Amino acid sequence: MKRILFTFAALAAFATAASAQSYDEIVRLRSMNETVRGIRSMNDGTHYTVVEEGAIRRYSYAGGEGETLVGLPEGFRLTDYLLSPDEQSVLLAEGSEPIYRHSYTTRYHLADASGIHPVMLGIEGTRDASFSPDGRWIAFSAGNNLWLYSTESRGARQITKDGEWNRIINGTTDWVYEEEYGFTKAYAFSPDSRRIAYLRFDESEVPVFEMMRFDGTLYNRPYTFKYPKAGERNSTVELWLHDIESGTRTRIDTGTESDQYIPHLGWTPDGALYYYRVNRLQNRFEVVLCAEDGTQRVIYDERSPRYVERMNAGTVTFIDGDRFVVREETTAGRMHLYLHSIAKGRLHAITSGDWEVTEVAAVTGKRIYYLSTESSPLRRDLYSIGLDGRRKRRLTDGDGYYTIAPSRGMKYYISTRSDASTPNRVEVRTGEGRLLRTLRTSEALRAELAATQRPVKEFVRIPTERGDTLNGWILRPRGFDPSKRYPVLMTQYSGPGSQQVADRWSLDWEDALADAGYVVVCADGRGTGFRGEEFKKCTYGQLGRLEVEDQLSVARWITRQSWADAGRLGIYGWSYGGFMALGCALKGEGLFKLAIAVAPVTSWRYYDTIYTEIYNGLPQDNPAGYDDNSPVCMAGLLDDTKTKLLIVHGTADDNVHFQNSMEMARALNRCGKQYDMMVYPDQNHSMMPDDTRNVRQKLVEYTIEHL
For the whole model, what pTM was predicted? Predict the structure, then answer.
């Protein structure tokens, strides 16, 4: 008996060691996937700059040897860079001190013919810097105020002086705008560099959220910040205009409604200020144009009975003083492009079809270049089309997933392509799609993947009990034998408009499970993106109901497969995916042997206004939509005799607060349920800054132990 126990212990130790090696191997392979860092097109549209070998280097798109534009000192930690409008100097950001997901403070330097010089000295917390169009000014934020730095006199002056932590923010965004609208630079210079428009956030009435920081100190301390949870007060946002020469400031009237969003501001090519306006329920989107005499007019108005998809700076692209292109889905039920006139309104559709435009890459005076799902919802290809909707051309010639870095005027572009079996290939092409040269091939990685016969995702269509199908992929271990039965882990995210099933190359911790003999399955259910407006928006007002139904349907399909061990089925997810993993474990009636929820939302009442309310309405209006599918309200459904549950969370998660897991634990405890928990002190939503690898290693080992 002692000998048998020793053998089992030795096997367990070997399995743990093998899994650790497997994940380290995943990390190593992923680091070999080549890319080009810091691509910036230059003004002439025929040259570009990149970051490589401790320098910013300039290249011709057409080819030839590159040259060093800025040589960086040894140890210089370049975070970002900007070329001045005349391209005679470069603004360098050195180092970063993270604030939230996108925001950070940094130290700025200006590089020119005389060397590299620190700028904005003596000002703490500088961030979000950019040049004015004439290059005479650099605007930046510091201490919740907006500043200007003169590149001629090398002195700085404050535009605003009322900025205060947790109260007033000028020229940058509050937490919820940063997280959900994805930008922090909340100002824009006019084309003639005479004025600067900016947003002012008054968050004094937004409730304070407090996170405890431990940081290895004797006494822990609270970190407080303004976080508007669903149904609570948002910041009051104002639009202001500053005249640089006179120093005068003017507030721009943005309407009678103060409880609204202004997710973008900008200037038309001929110098007219415009801004986006979105109501609190996010089912009406307007583009408002401001005239010099102070009058305003709505030049675009989109409404939906559910919601208008969240917009960004690329939703509206101005061509000239009258024409602009809009990407929207409410007209056709698919994301397409439409040409509008300020004077005449909508002119016509530019694109149409049973597919979606996912991104506008560039717009010239005659043509528009865009990425779309026309070849497959799983892929992205580059097309060009006339503004009249004619003479469409596909410019990409391989199947897979493309990202595009266009030159000025779209004379050239740099494409990065991968597919499920092939890592990145980076190429330079003319604006008409002709290949000029290849920059990166990931050749060493390709050779190693082939030599080791690395498992590759197989794309499938998974039927549901309703009679429709979901896009999915299956990852099988090496030497897969369909006559044998394998443990299966389902991985998913499932959030509104998201996509996990895409024909692009990637590796993550789940691939280590394939190395250990597991099958991994992923499916995009209802609510996910790129299959049309109805498929995406049918989950409105009832987050977690239809999405869980679909994942349970996929689970039942898996158990019917001859190669699946129905008694060894698990499910995993992070963030929204963690919310889903909990929902599936609770509603699955013991279908899952294992469920892992990392940084899960456990009640949408705990999450922020913009994200939650666009998909679920206000909790005051829709309490059932918040509670009926909330894991904290269903804790008693967990069959802990059949389902092993692991909850993982970082205590400094400013996004999905640790509160979610604590309240889930409270609910499970009250119901007498057993579960496991892994806590990462002072780590954020991504388990940074210290534990990104540790948590994934935990997921590998926990799955191997319990599934």
Answer: 0.95
